Structures are given as structure tokens and as C-alpha cells.
Amino acid sequence: MKINLDIIAEELSALSPRRAGRQKSDTVKHNLQGAGLYEPQTTLSPEICYAVSADTITETFFCPSGITLAVIGNADEDMLNAFDADILVLNAENAHCTFSDMFNALNSVFLKYQAIHARLTSAVMKNAPLQEILKIGEELFGNPLILFDKNYCILGEADSRLKKLELVCDKWSDSKMLSIDMVNAIKTSPEYRRSSTSSDICFVSDEYFAYNTLFVPVEGNTSPLTAAVMETDRPLTLVHRQLALYFAGILRLALGRNHLSSGHSLRFEDFLKELLYDTQIEQAVIDRYLLAMNWKNGDNYLLVTFQTNRFDKINSIYNNICVNIEKQIAESFAFYFEDNLLTVINLDHARLSKADAVHKLSIFLREGLFHAGISYVFFDFSTFSSYYKQTLGALEMGEKYSPHEWCYDFEDYVLHYFMHYGTSRTDGRHLCHPGVVQLYIHDLKNKTNLLETLRTYLELGGNAVLTAQKLYIHRNTLYQRLKKINGIIHTNLDDANTRLFIMMSYTFVDLLGLSPVES
């Protein structure tokens, strides 16, 4: 871990440090990894902070360009500012320290951060528990450290020192989370509003939150996390922002090794499963979970259920498949449920039409040997389970009536579904309009075509001209047939419900492969 003079100055604040040199404006770059004694005859490294006594700073002093110096004692300020170097002046007289004491103090700063870095990287490499990484992080900041998921659920344990935090129990995970009032207070702070558009580190004062707090975004391969450094033991400074960037990188390494669960992903998954189990959830709670994904009720969504043909029901395999699905389609969330893989897609955020989303999945589906059931586009998560049932219905009807296809849209199979389950207790023939049965019998006995004539007439909206053209008969012949049909079925074809009933009867016959009368 490399540090800079800002960090050193903060650690040695008792020695009244001040900056000097031409490069003193460059305060963010971390380029130092150790301390050394200044020897003008040796090759000097830009990664070493060289300690030098102020007494040696004279007009003959040689200062190479681009080095870093820790000047111990009082030296001529104008002379120091003329050097093309990064300089930190430490006042030995006020601290009543010798040069050796000051150098040891300087060196101890590097040893401290090197030790913390070694422990953090070791913890990541050995997949240490989350709490262990956070505890080491607390030594880095000198303050309590908490990791939140996007729902502001705490990952790990809440520090006992944080008495002012208003925590509630998350219903779906039994973990602690910030209260809604606290979350709303954070989001009203000016810096939070500014940083929310750029994903920068932000400072929220105790005017808006329980403590002065640095919120540090941690973007990884999973859902974003937020590290919060809360000021209890040590005042937060600009140096803490620099350290926060470093620590966020450590957490990203841990996420990259699949060590840390993002927390939010599992909780959002549990929330969706509760909806699938038809658990009654208040709209405010639904809105909160959607907000965690930057989604909202009113967006257009699509649910896709992948039915697998795999025999190896191994969670790790399905977890990898879910990750691949989410990579394939932006603004999607995939999870495993009841031996199926479910994917929710926010079509608005992904800027996709329903057809585009299905097209994006086509290669994935064929390569994975999956069948997919697709719901209607929906916008209300309170009825989420209904759309899951649609996908199951699409899969069931699709495999029954179109077994060679791989993707089944419920929109294309809703009539099949309706007819299939509408005739589950009663033979479809017995649900047909009586007039259809009578016309079928009449045609069978008299070798006529009245059944097809009526169907064509209704399909064309009662347009006699178009019906005659399609049947290749004269209009007068059509009128004669319609008169005969009316004499057989004694039904008012001007009634919309009657026309619907007759057309449904035709659909029963077609979809179920029946004839109106049992042979």
C-alpha cells in the first residue's frame, strides 16, 4: 500500500506538519512506500520519503526534482518552496524530539499502513469472513465501519458503539437495516444528492444522519454495496476520503473472488419469492425493494421462466447461469425457484421492447437447452405471482401444442390455456354453442357447408360482400344460406355475446382437435 504526505501529515499531527515545495498542490497521488535518510550522493527513489535535518538545508543543498522530503526542524520557507519537490516540514522543537525520534515516527507511519495492507490482502486471499475484513478496516479509519447493501441492510454486525443508529429488522432476511426515516434523511443531504449522479464518495453530516459519515460506493460484479465510515473516535478528514477509495478497492477484490455476498441480491430474491408465494406485502414495502434496484412500480417489466432439462440440480451451476443471464440482458434480475430459473427484466431501463428482450435470449436458450415461458408485459409487482403463473402456463401449453419450439409467449397460448382448463371437467364438445352442434349435424346429413359459412361470416365481422368473395359464392346464395342457418339455430347473430360464444365454440373444436359431436 502506497501513501502520500497528506496521510503522513495527519498521522504526525502532533508534530505541527506543514507542506512546502513546488509540488505541494498535488495532495492525492499515493506514491510513497517507505521512509529513508537523505544521502545526496545516492540514487533517490520517487517512492521513498527522505528525512533530512533542517540544519542541512542551505544554499548549497542539492534537491533532485520529483523527490519527497520530510524536513525535520525549522528551515527557510522561501528556500523550500523553490525546490521542485514534495516537502513536509515537521517541527521538532515543539515536540521536544530528537531527529532519530522524528525519523522513527515517520517510519512507523509506513509500517502501520503496510501492516494493515498485508492483513487486508491476506484476509481477501484466504476468503476470511466479512466481519474480519471490516474490523481491519476500522483500524485503517480509526472509526466504526459498516457495509450496507442497496436496501441499507447491514452486512455483518453493527458496531455496539453506534448507539444513535435507528435500526429495524428486515422481514425477509432477519438482518438489521436502517429505518426508512434515516434512509430518507440521508438522501435529503445536499452532498448525497450531488454524488448520487456520479457514484462518488459523499460526506453526510450529523445534521442529516446519526453521525458524520463517509458513504463509499463499492461497485463489483454483484449488486452495489456502500461502505459507511462513521465519526465516533476520530474526526473525518479529506485523508479518510483517500483511504476510503483504497478500502473500496479491497472490497472489490473480495467481491471478485466471490467471497462477499452482495447481500442485496439475496434479499431482493427472497422478496420476489415471497411475492411468488402470494404473501401479502404492503405497497410501500414493494416500492422500497424496487427502489433498491433503481426500479419502480409503473415501469414496464417482463418475466421469463426457463425450464431446465438438467439432471444435476447443483446450486452453483444455476448461480453461474443466473449471472450469465444478467450479463446478457441489462437491467435484469435472475434467480432459482422451484427447479426453474426466473428472470425479471425492466424493459424501460434496458430500453428494450418485448421482442428485443426475447431475441437477446434466443442464443442463450438454444445453447443451454432451455425452454422459456414468457409473461405479458406488466407494471405492478403486487400481482407478480400471476405473471409467474402465466409463464408456467405458456410452458405447459407450448410443450403440448408446439413441442418443437423453444420459446412460448403466454400471449400466443392464452386461448389454449383457457380452453384446456375450461374443458378439464367437461368435454369440450358439451361446451359448444348448441347451434354449432345443430349445423354440424345438418351438414353431415345433407352434405352442405353451413358450419363453415357461419364461421367465415362471423370472422369477417358480418360483412356479406367479403364473405361471399371468400367463399366464392354469389351474394344471393350467401343470403339464402344465412336464412337457412338462422332457421336451424334460432339465434340472434346481432348479439355480441352470442357471436363470441359461437366463435369460442369453433376455437374449442380447433384447439382441442374435436368435432362438435362425438363420432
Automatic annotation (TrEMBL):
Entry coiled-coil feature ranges: none
A Pfam family hit: HTH_30
Matches recorded under Gene3D superfamilies: PucR C-terminal helix-turn-helix domain
Domain PucR C-terminal helix-turn-helix: 450-502
Protein origin, superkingdom: Bacteria
InterPro entries attached to this UniProt entry: CdaR-like_regulators, PucR_C-HTH_dom, PucR_C-HTH_sf
Name of the protein in question: PucR C-terminal helix-turn-helix domain-containing protein
Organism: Blautia producta
